Amino acid sequence: MRDPPSDEPPIYRSFPDLVATLESILLRNGTSDEVARVLATNCASAERDGSQSHGLFRMTGYVKNLRSGFVDGRSVPNIRDAGSAFLYVDAGNGYARPALESAMPRAIGKARSAGACVLAIGNAHHNGPLWLDVEPFAEVGLVAIGVVNSVTYVVPHGGRKRLYGTNPMAFAVPRMDGQVLLFDQATAAMAHGEVAVAARENKLLPEGIGLDASGLPTRSPQAILEGGALLPFGGHKGSSIAMMIDILAGALTSSNFSHQVDWSAHPGAESAHTGETIILIDPTRGNGSLRMFTQRIEDLVAAMADAGQTRLPGERRLAARKLAAERGIAIAPAMWKQLMVL
């Protein structure tokens, strides 16, 4: 059953205005100026790009994590040069995005000099969309693959209880004329944030998304969230990819596996204290020039269209971004009211 539609028209805010609003909320709740700037920009960017599950919807979680003491909103990332093509960043029990931004220039430099770079971020809390983490690297001509392990919500294929997080992965590659081709997807049948949005709006889910607390298939998002579990996409295939991501983002970064996250000592907390790994590749090492590489990408995009694919991965986000630039970011009045009391 859906909530009745609101008669109130959306509130429109420019991107800079929304960032400023979010910054003030984060500062009131104990972050440093730099952390507030980075998180506000990231959250506003997700909302601008049309992500209900990873945009303003996440602000309450940011604040809960900060108020509970589960996340250090003033931490300063520590970057360690771990090899000619390896950077390790200790996020200091802070959010992952500020740690990522602190290491971006050095990671790009290593990818240029060595041809590739592994950027491992540990002791971190990742709450935003993963596509925004890989997109900046593609914009400067690199191929980027990102993975994050999250709080345990997913039962492994053939299993009986939660083990993995929704463990998303994202991929971004440069195209001609500065464009980017990217995707961002969970290894669960549906992202946890999307299930939470469906629960808030009293919407039923499609078949095959999750189980209730008794282990029976359910379309109820509330049943999945209240003791149930999500299923991996593609059965054993998605389960194997979730395992790989738990290793790359958890073990490789010296961080928790999804099932090891424990916020019991911090009532109200709800983020994953885990890790993130981004792998960067300089495509000019294999193709000789960026133009040659991006032309190959355009050839593939043309072949996809010829095969009948009508929409590219990430296309809806870019359309939402363009619309927001023209008219402002549309915000539901109820969401705006929630923000004003944080």
User: How is the CATH topology of one domain named?
Assistant: Ribosomal Protein S8, Chain: A, domain 1
Order of helices and strands: EHHHEEHEHEEEHEEHEHEHHHEH
Strand segment count: 12
Mean pLDDT, to the nearest integer, reads 95
Class inferred from helices and paired strands: alpha+beta
Tally the helices: 12
Strand content: 15-25%
Uncertain ranges? 1-5
**What CATH architecture label of one domain applies?**
2-Layer Sandwich
Helix content: 40-55%
What is the makeup of the main sheet?
7 strands, mixed
Note down, in words, how this protein is organized.
Helices cover 41% and strands 19% of the residues. The protein is α+β, with helices and mostly antiparallel strands and 342 residues long. The chain has a domain at 76-188 and 232-314: Malate/L-lactate/L-sulpholactate dehydrogenase, NADPH binding domain (Ribosomal Protein S8, Chain: A, domain 1, 2-Layer Sandwich), CATH 3.30.1370. The strands form 3 sheets. The chain has a 7-stranded mixed sheet, sandwiched between helices. Strands 9-8-10 form a 3-stranded antiparallel sheet. It is globular. The two termini are 28 Å apart.
